[in-house]
């Protein structure tokens, strides 16, 4: 049983998610680009610029081997990311929406091609720190993390301009599944006897059931047919889950909108689930 659970291959989903994003952006009025989003200080234009930053950064590093911006002295990873993301967003404020749409349409297939030849079980280009800080991430988890990034930012834009979409279970389901791979790291401070099991239910058409088990001194994702009776159980709606994991809502709000049963320490920890770097 691997700590990260079974492989999630999100690569076929990137073109679908991007088509939905480009269709959305092409339909926006000029005033829509100025609407504020849940990302503090960023409007729709800024979030699109941030997505472009992700495209360019991954192509520059993964395809071209370019290191990019360097850490400042004593700078933590969250501080570094906040700084370089803000620098890029500010620079792209001088670019028109049409230019950014054209860049997304051009660069997206380049990124698809880069990932299409990756060995999913090979070490990741960038480790997923919210899944583990002491283990090398597999490539599939790194790629899936990027898929969640793009999907979440599209949903944030849709929220800002009141345009539904991209909630198809085929698109949202892998986001939920990927985010829940943060559970072993989320529970890391909760020491329990070997074999202790926790269950996490996500309701909605893109939801399902996930289990985490204590094995060899740490928590692992576990298949449901191999575990004992859970000592803790969380039930959360799919919309609450993705917003909690990306901190679109607070932990307190997520708890108010969820159900818990059993071991209080485990349910309290699990409902702090975070799948972004902060």
Automatic annotation (TrEMBL):
The keyword Isomerase applies. InterPro entries: DinB/YfiT-like, Maleyloyr_isom, MDMPI_metal-binding. The keyword Transmembrane does not apply. Residues 16-157 form the Mycothiol-dependent maleylpyruvate isomerase metal-binding domain. Pfam families: MDMPI_N. GO terms for molecular function: isomerase activity. Keywords: Isomerase. SUPFAM superfamilies: DinB/YfiT-like putative metalloenzymes. This is Maleylpyruvate isomerase family mycothiol-dependent enzyme. It comes from Streptosporangium amethystogenes subsp. fukuiense.
């Amino acid at each position: 049983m691997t700590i990260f659970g079974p492989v999630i291959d999100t690569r076929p989903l990137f073109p679908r998610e991007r088509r939905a994003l480009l269709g959305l952006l092409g339909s926006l009025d000029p005033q829509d680009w100025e609407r504020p989003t849940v990302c503090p200080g960023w409007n729709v234009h800024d979030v699109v610029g941030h997505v472009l930053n992700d495209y360019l950064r991954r192509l520059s590093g993964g395809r071209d081997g370019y290191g990019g911006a360097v850490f400042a002295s004593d700078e933590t990873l969250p501080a570094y990311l906040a700084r370089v993301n803000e620098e890029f967003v500010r620079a792209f404020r001088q670019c028109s929406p049409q230019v950014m749409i054209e860049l997304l349409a051009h660069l997206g297939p380049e990124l698809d091609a880069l990932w299409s030849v990756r060995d999913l079980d090979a070490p990741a280009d960038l480790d997923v720190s919210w899944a583990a800080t002491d283990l090398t991430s597999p490539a599939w988890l790194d790629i899936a993390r990027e898929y969640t990034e793009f999907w979440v930012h599209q949903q944030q834009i849709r929220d800002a301009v009141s345009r539904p979409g991209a909630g198809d279970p085929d698109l949202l389901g892998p986001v939920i599944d990927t985010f829940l791979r943060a559970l072993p790291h989320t529970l890391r401070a909760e020491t329990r006897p070997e074999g202790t099991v926790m269950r996490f239910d996500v309701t909605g058409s893109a939801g399902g059931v996930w289990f985490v088990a204590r094995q060899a001194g740490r928590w692992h994702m576990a298949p449901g047919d191999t575990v004992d009776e859970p000592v803790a159980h969380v039930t959360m709606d799919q919309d609450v889950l993705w917003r909690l994991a990306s901190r679109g809502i607070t932990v307190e709000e997520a708890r108010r909108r969820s159900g818990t049963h059993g071991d209080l320490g485990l349910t309290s920890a699990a409902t702090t689930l975070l799948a972004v770097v902060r």
